[in-house]
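Researcher: Here's a chain I'd like modeled. Treat it as a single chain, no partners, no ligands.
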Amino acid sequence: MALTKIDRRLRIKRRVRKIVSGTADRPRLSVYRSNKQISAQLIDDRAGVTLCSVSSLSKEFKDSNKITNCELSAKVGANLAEKAKEAKIETVVFDRNGYLYHGRIQSLAEAARKGGLKF
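Model: Modeled as a single isolated chain. Structure tokens:
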């Protein structure tokens, strides 16, 4: 029986989450992408706390409906890097959440790296 796209992504997600875990010193950068929006958050898995999060639905990106999804993802990544610097977070563990490292996920990760986060 063939897997659907969602089942395949969830299988990859479970496989990665067995290994990747965030701490207070090195939180997990988790990315979620839908067809139109993207969001990212820094998570301390030991304490079960989200340290900071950014979404393309935030007020900062309200007027950005004329740019492409990859450019919007890059802005979300840069904004997350700024918030991480304010929270004194420099290194993270990247969790692509079962998505391929391509397109919007890649542009978010590269913008976060340019913003000063170390993966």
